[in-house]
């Protein structure tokens, strides 16, 4: 491919953007020198038809204008023959091109100007004004290129071109998305500046009275002569200055220098999952008493350890990690990152009682970690899903030899200041874990990790860390005949990471008497929101075996929403939690998964296209098991009764209740008691098996004979009307903010119709747009990027994005035979 020749022939048709540096050097932190500005708007995009374009672009190429982050795969149609397979969500990849023209102000001619990509999936290559900047195969890692030598200044245009090649598939076991799916930034600095990811802040000694804060800063000098400068680091708590340290330096021409500064913080506010207190370090470089560079670093002050017998200790307090695993896609938004969408997911999980996130199985978006810092999540930051041995034909294993060291270093440098990160995971279910080759690779990765961060323990998700001898009938762990996974037994890891194998948890101290425990991945329970099998107290293992095609199941590829269906390698939600909660030495767990995600529709294949694993469905609607966790993981008073109350007359129905802060629950049908139930032993729910009778199902929880909570479920009539509820009725007019609007299908009396699956149409008036629709149905093939969608179990979601003007957005939902509904969202 004659790429340079081709690039020179491209016409400059994209919208021009001007980049200006804030040259003012005010000393107040609130007038910060803005090194980094968004570069997301007004890109031109072309998706290749490789048969015609032959993987090139030229003057005749047709482009469309869009903003990034962008995921082109989510815009496509579900395809049974997609090379990504049902594991990849049956959505196609391909090869795409992005380009953008922009201007650089003349006064910046002596500055260093770089472009930063937070993530491009995958195999990205970048050119600026025809000059090749580089390639990055890994779709999840951030990277930066300096553009200074190739730029034009003043009125002359610059053109950047990005090639993204996601055509070789399958390359992922789940839906990856395609394109520039994370944020892009232009960074402008003085030739003397703090380097990229150039600070490293640790707190080597923490007490209630005082914390020592160690600040390592890498200074980069791109001047042709040496410089004498002053480096000042000021620590802020919110807007209050806490302390300042200053150091004079002499740095050689074209040199790098790392300096160490030590500060003390009196009476520190300690970061925890319940009170995520944050500090901010502002590093300033001054030449001749003029501030030429400023660099912000958010960090937390906390003391923690993983104890062999007491589990996870945070600031002297034993804390059980109640975590979930999360993939990177945002449901109907695909993989295109949006801060509000991530925040909404975390809010829903926090309400459930979650205090931990595992970034399975790749470096996450920076925005996720920033939100985890602010909201209080204990993060396992994971690097790889495979090492050299591939799991799919075209995955990262093909790039391992050349890229793994650089990718891991960049992840460590980027992420190591985050208060929320408490452990590094160097791999997930790595095939090499069972060989000495895997041990050698793990030693290399561990050495790299500890070179760049010695403050956090190292783990890996092993499946499992012991080779179990399990009786196929009783599934009882037999301690005899146990052999230790070579990786687990190598001594490389600081934490033994268990993927599943819950039968072995209670034997951990016998098998690993020197290394603490963490359940890196657990459960793999399966549910379809709103669907219930007739008998709820039988456990089903779907599929029968991980490597056998599943030929059973339910009509419509549904799975019962009672906690009764599990994978053969996992458990029900209740089973694993019962074990974890019982023992102090079990530090905690990360459940697979917090939210459903696109792809990997276990136990089914096509036509299913998204997962059944989530505690919350793809649209963000909680499944019933959400409330089991809420009753166990929070202090909120919970009474959740299910299923719905629309059945055939006389049909036997199992009614479950999750509850807490009460002694018992009494159930009534149309005012008549059908009995009291109380949890016994380690029970986590109670159940009644009763014949259906139309009317009102009422549950009453009591403690000491006094009513705690009451909940009613009514039999719904025919669907009659729509109801719209926005998670936020006022959003920012910044072209990024989102309002997530729930659509409920109700009967004439306002009762939700639990079996309604009407097609709902949406229209929007005002300066905004509809960017996603979803019902959470894993079998739906309706596009997520549309203005209509079919409800599941009486619910649907529509996502509205703001424009750049203040005003009113009027969203209307309508369906044949139903009364429509309109809601107003204000943008400001």
TrEMBL record:
Residues 722-823 form the Glycoside hydrolase family domain. Keywords: Glycosidase, Hydrolase. One of its GO terms (biological process) is carbohydrate metabolic process. Residues 310-476 form the Glycoside hydrolase family 2 catalytic domain. InterPro entries: Beta-gal/glucu_dom_sf (IPR036156), DUF4982 (IPR032311), Galactose-bd-like_sf (IPR008979), GH (IPR017853), GH2_Domain-Containing (IPR051913), Glyco_hydro2_dom5 (IPR040605), Glyco_hydro_2 (IPR006101), Glyco_hydro_2_AS (IPR023232). Residues 650-708 form the DUF4982 domain. Residues 93-186 form the Glycosyl hydrolases family 2 sugar binding domain. One of its GO terms (molecular function) is hydrolase activity, hydrolyzing O-glycosyl compounds. Pfam families: DUF4982, Glyco_hydro2_C5, Glyco_hydro_2, Glyco_hydro_2_C, Glyco_hydro_2_N. Residues 201-302 form the Glycoside hydrolase family 2 immunoglobulin-like beta-sandwich domain. Belongs to the glycosyl hydrolase 2 family. This is DUF4982 domain-containing protein. It comes from Flavobacterium potami.
């Amino acid at each position: 491919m004659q790429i340079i020749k081709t690039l020179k022939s491209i016409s400059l048709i994209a919208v021009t953007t001007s980049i200006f540096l804030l040259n003012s050097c005010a000393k107040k932190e609130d007038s910060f020198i803005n090194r980094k500005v968004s570069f997301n708007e007004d890109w031109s995009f072309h998706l290749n038809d490789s048969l015609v374009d032959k993987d090139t672009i030229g003057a005749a190429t047709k482009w469309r204008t869009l903003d990034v982050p962008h995921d082109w795969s989510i815009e496509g149609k579900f395809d049974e023959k997609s090379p990504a397979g049902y594991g990849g969500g049956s959505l196609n990849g391909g090869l795409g091109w992005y380009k953008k023209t922009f201007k650089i102000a003349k006064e910046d001619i002596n500055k260093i100007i770089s472009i930063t990509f937070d993530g491009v999936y995958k195999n990205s290559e970048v050119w600026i004004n025809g000059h090749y900047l580089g390639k990055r195969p890994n779709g999840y890692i951030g990277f930066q290129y300096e553009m200074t030598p190739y730029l034009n200044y003043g009125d002359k245009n610059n053109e950047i071109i990005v090639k993204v090649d996601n055509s070789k598939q399958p390359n992922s076991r789940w839906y990856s998305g395609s394109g520039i799916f994370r944020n892009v930034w232009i960074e402008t600095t003085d030739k003397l500046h703090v380097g990229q990811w150039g600070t490293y802040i640790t707190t080597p000694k923490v007490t209630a009275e005082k914390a020592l804060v160690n600040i390592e800063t890498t200074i980069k000098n791109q001047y042709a002569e040496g410089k004498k400068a002053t480096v000042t680091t000021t620590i802020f708590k919110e807007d209050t200055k806490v302390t300042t340290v200053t150091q004079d330096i002499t740095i050689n021409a074209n040199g790098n220098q790392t300096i160490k500064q030590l500060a003390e913080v009196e009476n520190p506010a300690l970061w925890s999952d319940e009170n995520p207190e944050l500090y901010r370090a502002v590093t300033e470089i001054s030449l001749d008493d003029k501030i030429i560079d400023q660099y912000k670093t958010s960090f937390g002050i906390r003391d923690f350890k993983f104890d062999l017998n007491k589990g996870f200790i945070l600031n002297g307090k034993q804390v059980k990690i109640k975590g979930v695993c999360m993939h990177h896609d945002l449901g109907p938004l695909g993989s295109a990152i949006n801060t509000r969408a991530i925040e909404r997911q975390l809010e829903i999980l926090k309400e459930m009682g979650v205090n931990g996130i595992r970034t399975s199985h790749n470096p996450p978006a920076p925005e996720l970690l920033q939100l985890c810092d602010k909201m209080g999540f204990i993060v396992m930051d994971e690097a790889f899903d495979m090492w050299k041995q591939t799991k799919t034909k075209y995955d990262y294993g093909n790039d391992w030899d050349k890229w793994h060291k650089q990718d891991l270093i960049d992840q460590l440098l980027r992420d190591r200041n985050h208060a929320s990160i408490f452990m590094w995971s160097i791999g997930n279910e790595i095939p090499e874990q069972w060989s000495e080759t895997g041990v050698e690779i793990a030693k290399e990765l561990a050495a790299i990790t500890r070179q760049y961060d010695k403050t956090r323990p190292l783990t890996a998700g092993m499946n499992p860390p012991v080779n179990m001898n399990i009786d196929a009938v009783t599934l009882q762990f037999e301690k005899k005949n146990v052999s230790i996974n070579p990786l687990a037994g190598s001594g490389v890891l600081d934490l033994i990471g268990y993927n599943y194998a819950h039968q072995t948890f209670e034997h951990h101290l016998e098998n690993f008497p020197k290394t603490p425990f963490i359940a890196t991945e657990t459960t793999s329970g399966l549910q379809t929101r709103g669907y219930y099998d007739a008998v709820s107290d039988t456990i089903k293992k779907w599929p029968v075996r991980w490597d056998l095609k599943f030929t059973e199941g339910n009509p419509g590829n549904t799975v019962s929403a009672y906690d009764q269906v599990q994978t053969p390698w996992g458990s029900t939600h209740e089973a694993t939690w019962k074990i974890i909660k019982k023992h102090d030495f079990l530090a905690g767990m990360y459940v697979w998964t917090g939210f459903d995600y696109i792809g990997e529709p276990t136990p089914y294949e096509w036509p299913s296209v998204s997962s059944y694993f989530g505690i919350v469905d793809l649209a963000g609607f909680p499944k019933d098991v959400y409330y089991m966790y809420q009753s166990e993981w929070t202090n909120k008073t919970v009474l959740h009764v299910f299923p719905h109350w629309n059945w055939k007359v006389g049909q036997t129905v199992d009614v479950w209740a999750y509850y807490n802060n009460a002694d018992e629950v009494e159930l009534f049908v149309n005012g008549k008691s059908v009995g009291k139930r109380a949890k016994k032993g380690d029970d986590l729910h109670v159940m009644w098996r009763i014949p259906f009778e139309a009317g009102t199902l009422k549950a009453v929880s009591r403690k000491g004979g006094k009513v705690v909570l009451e909940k009613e479920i009514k039999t719904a009539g025919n669907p009659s009307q729509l109801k719209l509820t926005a998670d936020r009725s006022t959003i920012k007019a910044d072209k990024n903010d989102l309002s997530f609007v729930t659509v409920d299908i109700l009967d004439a009396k306002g009762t939700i119709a639990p079996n309604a699956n009407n097609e709902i149409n949406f229209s929007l008036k005002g300066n905004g747009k509809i960017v996603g629709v979803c019902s959470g149905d894993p079998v739906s093939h309706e596009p997520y990027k549309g203005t209509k969608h079919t409800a599941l179990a009486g619910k649907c979601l529509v996502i509205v994005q703001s424009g750049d003007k203040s005003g009113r957005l009027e969203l209307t939902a309508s369906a044949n035979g139903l009364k429509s509904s309109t809601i107003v969202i204000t943008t400001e």
